[in-house]
Amino acid sequence: MLIFRLVVAALLVASALSFALYIGTRDARWKQRGLLILEWTVIAGLAFFAVLLLERVAMVL
Question: What is the Cα Rg of the chain in Å?
Answer without folding.
Answer: 15
